[in-house]
Write a structure and sequence with these properties.
Number of strands: 16
Number of helices: 8
CATH topology of the largest domain: Trna Endonuclease, Chain: A, domain 1
Number of domains: 2
CATH class of the largest domain: Alpha Beta
CATH architecture of the largest domain: 3-Layer(aba) Sandwich
Strand content: 25-35%
Order of helices and strands: EEHEEEEHHEEHEEHHEEEEHEEH
Distance between the termini: 30 Å
C-alpha cells in the first residue's frame, strides 16, 4: 500500500492510501468533484438498480458540444472494457433525443454552449484506480476519442486527496488509415466554421499567447479544439481563447471570480459553470500583453509556481 507524504513548512503528514469501498462510492465522489472534468458539464448520473444494460454511468457534454459517456470501474481496467464502452457510444448515437431532453431539463446548464443534435461526436471517458497501458493500443484503433483516467485516493481525517492521471499514448510514429481520423483543428478548419477574417485574427492572438508562454518558459501545451484553443499543463487548462459566435472570440482564464476581479482589467463576464473569466477580444485594439497579470495568475493557480 502506497503512502503519500504531505510536507509543509510546519509539518510532514503521512496520508494513507485508501481505496474506494464500492464502485458506487467511487462514482459519487467523482460526480461531486466536477473540477476533474474541467471541460465537461455533467448532466446525468445513472441511478443504481434495475436493468442498466447499455447505459453509461455518467453522461455529460464538453466545451465542443461532444456527448461524453463516462464509464467507471473500481478495479484495474484492461482492454476488455472497450466492447462495453463501444456499446455505450452506440447508445448515445441512437438516443440523441433522450440526451437532448436531459440537457433541456437541466436548470443550471450553460446557455452559450452550442450543441448540434443532428451531428454530434461521442467522446468516451474511462475512469478507474488503475488502467493497464496495453489498453491504449486498443483505444488507438477505434474511431472515437477516448480518455483513460486513473484516480487514486489518500485520506487525512475528513480530508481526501485525489491523484488524477491521464494515460497518454507513446510519442511514436504509427501508421494510420485515412478513414476514421478525427478532424484537424487549425486555421483552415476555423476559416470554414467561422468568419474567415475572425479566424485569421483568432490564430494571430493564439500565436501571441504562445510567444508569452515561450518567453516566460512556462510548461504549457497548446491544444486546439472545435470551439477553443486551450493552454494546458497535463490535461488541465490554465487559460485560452474561445469562440463566442461566428465572428467574436475571447480570452478565458481559469480563475475564481474573486481572483479575476482583483486584477484591474474589465471582465466581460464570469462563467461559473466552467469557473472561468472571459474577456472579449477586439482585433486591432486588444493587446495580448495587457493581460499578462491574468496569464501569470492563472498559470500560478494551476501549477503552484
Amino acid at each position: 500500500m502506497a503512502n503519500l507524504f504531505w510536507k509543509t513548512k510546519q509539518e510532514t503528514k503521512i496520508l494513507l492510501s485508501t481505496p474506494f469501498k464500492t464502485e458506487e462510492e467511487f462514482e459519487k465522489i467523482v460526480f461531486n468533484t466536477p473540477e476533474i472534468f474541467e471541460d465537461i458539464f455533467l448532466i446525468k448520473r445513472q441511478i443504481r438498480g434495475g436493468n442498466k444494460s447499455g447505459i453509461p454511468d455518467i453522461v455529460g457534454i464538453d466545451n465542443d458540444g461532444n456527448i461524453c459517456i463516462i464509464e467507471m470501474k473500481n478495479v484495474t481496467v484492461d482492454a476488455s472494457i472497450i466492447p462495453q464502452v463501444l456499446q455505450y457510444a452506440f447508445w448515445a448515437e441512437t438516443n440523441p433525443d433522450l440526451i437532448k431532453c436531459l440537457w433541456l431539463e437541466y436548470e443550471k446548464k450553460p446557455d452559450e454552449l452550442s450543441i448540434s443534435w443532428d451531428d454530434f461526436q461521442v467522446r468516451i471517458i474511462i475512469i478507474a484506480p488503475s488502467i493497464l497501458k496495453s489498453t491504449l493500443d486498443i483505444v488507438e484503433k477505434i474511431n472515437y476519442p477516448v480518455d483513460l483516467i486513473e484516480i487514486k485516493r489518500w485520506v487525512d481525517g475528513d480530508n481526501q486527496m485525489l491523484l488524477v492521471n491521464k494515460l497518454e499514448e507513446d510519442k511514436r510514429i504509427k501508421p494510420k488509415t485515412v478513414s476514421g481520423l478525427p478532424p484537424v483543428y487549425d486555421e483552415r478548419f476555423y476559416k470554414k466554421e467561422y468568419n474567415k477574417d475572425s479566424a485569421r485574427e483568432f490564430m494571430k492572438y493564439t500565436k501571441e499567447t504562445e510567444s508569452i508562454i515561450k518567453e516566460k518558459e512556462w510548461s504549457l501545451e497548446t491544444k486546439y479544439n472545435k470551439h477553443y484553443c486551450g493552454f494546458k499543463a497535463g490535461f488541465f487548462i490554465a487559460f485560452g481563447i474561445k469562440w463566442i459566435g461566428s465572428k467574436t472570440f475571447a480570452f478565458f482564464f481559469k480563475l475564481d471570480e474573486k481572483q479575476a476581479n482583483s486584477i484591474p482589467i474589465k471582465m466581460t463576464k464570469y462563467e461559473s459553470h466552467w469557473k472561468e473569466a472571459a474577456y472579449y477580444i477586439k482585433p486591432g485594439e486588444t493587446k495580448t500583453k495587457d493581460f499578462m497579470p491574468l496569464f501569470e495568475m492563472a498559470y500560478k493557480k494551476l501549477t503552484g509556481d
